[in-house]
Design a protein that fits this description.
Elements (H helix, E strand, L loop, with lengths): L18 H29 L11 E2 L6 E2 L5 H12 L22 H30 L10 H6 L3 H19 L1 H8 L10 H5 L6 H31 L6 H28 L12 H26 L8 H32 L2 H12 L2 H18 L3 H5 L1 H28 L7 H22 L12 H5 L6
Antiparallel strand pairs: 1-2
Helix pairs in contact: 1-16, 3-5, 3-9, 3-10, 3-15, 3-16, 5-6, 5-8, 8-9, 9-10, 10-11, 10-15, 11-13, 13-15
């Protein structure tokens, strides 16, 4: 049932980053610093709990740096451990090189969490570019009234990338056991020789760890800057000039194809390789979707805030309804991918695949189940009703849970592979999320002040002004 059209005056608006919003972002940063400091001060207590229970049988290297599957331990040790922990990898799939908990410097937790938070916000910023590109490729008119929001979010790419690179530079040896193995220089026949890691060494090596992400992020960033420059040119063009709009469509199509094919490479290299013997054919796409739905949630937050402050006069409940529907729809899609990845591996019980879920389900069960609860159950039930998708207070509550849940999702991808068992989602994890979240808020809101909030020369703006979901 349509709602009919009514006249809405289209006029340019200039966002002002209010002192109240600035204080809130500073509070987030300060609180994040405090919680991170508490986490750092207490992390030695946590690190004593780490152990490598995922290793079936262990033998020490002469220099005491690594633990491996050794041939001399054979099937007997694997069989006895299998009775305790189920279907585990064995020498058939290559030995495991895993740090003992006492060999992990306490600082590893800092670098691992910097990796998580940097990757999380980098992917959010990149998926904002993807959102922006898809709107052009799809000739979507409804979203033209809120296009400044993803344009502001995508400017955070370099900040998040710097955080990520610091984590890789400082902590790569402790985060990725294949980096440590690379330095051992083992030959076939040596105790601890790992044919799986050797087979992947063309991709999993220290040079690729820095070169691949840097090259791809630079390419994506340059393309993002081009899209923004076309948007600026469109703003300054004469009324009715659609040439820059058409160029944006072509360039967006190129970005969407390139990003769609290459984002998995970054996910494989930075996140999946934490568990280097494990692999999933949908891991890259799963990573994209978990950040995609998070980005849409953040975008809905910003639009709702701008409306509350009296901006975006052309944005109505119809637009908020659509953002709420996207949050709901991709929550369901995330759950589909989550279950597909888990169920097939659980059903097949292939040892080298089972290892990934075994430690997460057996030793991180509360996190594992809580992750599904925060990322699917709560948002699915909370956003099921039509009225909930139009209520900014409901969106704020459900959206906050979703953001924390998907951040925790990335944490669960990384932490068990780095530390083994015994880690908790504690002060440092929450602190770093709040700290970088506060920086993100300040950065994005500052970006919003640089240009008018309304894309007055966008050819589909009139369609967006009269957008009606029809129900």
């Amino acid at each position: 049932m349509g709602h009919g059209h009514h006249e809405i005056e289209v006029k340019q608006e200039q966002f002002v980053f209010s002192p109240k919003a600035k204080r809130f972002s500073i509070i987030l940063m300060v609180l994040g610093l405090i919680l991170t400091g508490i986490g750092i001060a207490t992390m030695d207590n946590h690190s004593e709990n780490h152990n490598s229970t995922t290793v079936a049988a262990a033998s020490h290297e002469t220099h005491g740096e690594a633990t491996v599957h050794g041939e001399e331990h054979g099937t007997a040790a694997s069989a006895s451990h299998e009775e305790e922990h189920g279907n585990v990898p064995n020498e058939k799939f290559g030995p495991r090189v895993v740090f003992h908990h006492q060999d992990k410097p306490a600082s590893t937790r800092i670098w691992a969490n910097m990796l998580i938070v940097g990757y999380f916000f980098l992917m959010i910023s990149l998926t904002a570019v993807m959102w922006y590109a898809i709107q052009y490729v799809a000739n979507a008119g409804w979203s033209s009234s809120i296009k400044r929001v993803p344009e502001a979010i995508m400017t955070f790419i370099p900040v998040a990338f710097v955080i990520l690179m610091i984590a890789l530079f400082m902590g790569k040896n402790e985060i990725y056991h294949w980096v440590h193995y690379e330095h051992l220089g083992l030959k076939p026949g040596d105790a601890g020789y790992d044919k799986v890691l050797v087979g992947k060494s063309g991709f999993l090596n220290s040079n690729m760890l820095f070169i691949f992400p840097t090259v791809l992020v630079v390419i994506w960033y340059v393309m993002m800057r081009k899209l923004r420059s076309l948007s600026v040119a469109e703003d300054n063009a004469t009324k009715g000039d659609s040439s820059f709009f058409k160029k944006s469509i072509s360039f967006s199509a190129g970005f969407a194809v390139l990003f769609g094919f290459t984002i998995s490479v970054v996910a494989w290299l930075l996140i999946m390789s934490v568990d280097a013997h494990w692999y999933s054919t949908i891991f890259g796409f799963y990573n994209f979707v978990t950040h995609w739905v998070t980005m849409i949630t953040i975008m809905a937050f910003i639009v709702a805030y701008l409306k509350k402050e009296g901006y975006l006069g052309i944005v109505t409940n119809e637009h908020m309804h659509d953002l709420g529907k996207f949050m709901f729809a991709f929550t369901v899609f995330w759950a589909y991918l989550w279950l597909s990845q888990y169920l097939l591996i659980w059903y097949a019980q292939i040892p080298e695949e089972m290892a990934y879920y075994q430690i997460r389900f057996e030793d991180y069960k509360a996190n594992f189940l809580g992750n599904f609860f925060m990322c699917f159950c709560i948002p699915f039930l909370g956003l099921l009703m039509r009225s909930a998708k139009r209520n900014r207070y409901v969106l704020a509550i459900i959206g906050s849970i979703m953001i924390i849940g998907h951040y925790h999702d990335v944490w669960l991808m990384v932490t068990p592979g780095v530390f083994g068992t015994g880690m908790t989602f504690g002060f440092m994890e929450i602190g770093m999320l709040l700290l970088v979240g506060g920086i993100f808020m300040w950065w994005v809101f500052t970006a919003l002040t640089k240009r008018g909030l309304i894309a007055v020369n966008h050819p589909f703006l009139e369609e967006s002004v009269h957008h009606d979901v029809g129900v």
